Amino acid sequence: MKRLVLILMLLASPVTAVEPDEILSDPVLEQRARELSKGLRCLVCRNESIDESNASLAKDLRILLRERLVAGDSDAQAVDFIVARFGEYVLLNPRSGGMNWLLWGAGPLMLMLAGTTGAFYVRSRSRAKAPQDEELSADEAQKLRDILNN
Fold first, then answer.
1. The model's pTM
2. What CATH number should be reported for the domain whose range is 11-90?
3. pLDDT-based confidence at residue 11 (cuts at 50, 70, 90)
4. I need a labelling partner for 40 at 20 to 30 A (CA). Which of 10, 64, 92, 132 fits?
5. Where are the domains of the chain?
């Protein structure tokens, strides 16, 4: 029973996809590479970081990132190099500048627009006149009695 629990715990633990041949000999550079790769999206797996993904493209991106760090790039320069090649989609947490402000603001703007439209609709419905009950004419009353009696 203890072995089963141990096996299940090992299977449930997070597994990183970094292979031994990718690991840098300098532990400081390796730690920087790991931190940066957690913020970069695997273009094959979509919502997985390249640190977690087993896809070959993710491996290529991890190697490219490590090459840039070994070449002396700062963290920002290494990430900017990858973003310049693959676009901002490669970032798991997109930047909130430039045209992205439009995307960041679209949700709240649409919510306010829908709320305002709903408030005007409810207000106009509450002010609308209720249909008035009118008496039936003698001819209509006779037709109704005929229908009900048959």
1. 0.58
2. 1.10.8.640
3. low
4. 10
5. 11-90, 95-122
First to last CA, the chain: 80
**Using N-to-C axis directions, what is the helix angle for 27-37 and 56-70, rounded to 10°?**
130
Instruction: Give the Cα separation of 72 and 53 in Å (integer).
Output: 25
Token pair belonging to 1: 């029973």
Q: Which residues contact 49 (CB under 8 A, 6 or more apart)?
A: 37, 38, 39, 40, 41, 42, 92
Q: Any idea which residue has 């973003």 for tokens?
A: 83
Q: In angstroms, rounded to a whole number, what is the distance separating the alpha carbons of residues 108 and 93? A: 19
- Alpha-carbon span 111 to 118, nearest angstrom: 10
Which residues does 62 contact at the CB level (< 8 Å), separation at least 6? 18, 22, 33, 37, 50, 51
Q: What is the pLDDT of residues 91-141, one digit of tens each?
A: 888 777 777 788 778 899 999 999 999 999 999 988 877 777 778 889 999
The upper half-sphere exposure of residue 72, i.e. CA atoms within 13 Å in the direction of its Cβ, equals: 0
For tokens 């430039």, the residue is 98
In whole angstroms, what is the distance from residue 7 CA to residue 9 CA?
5
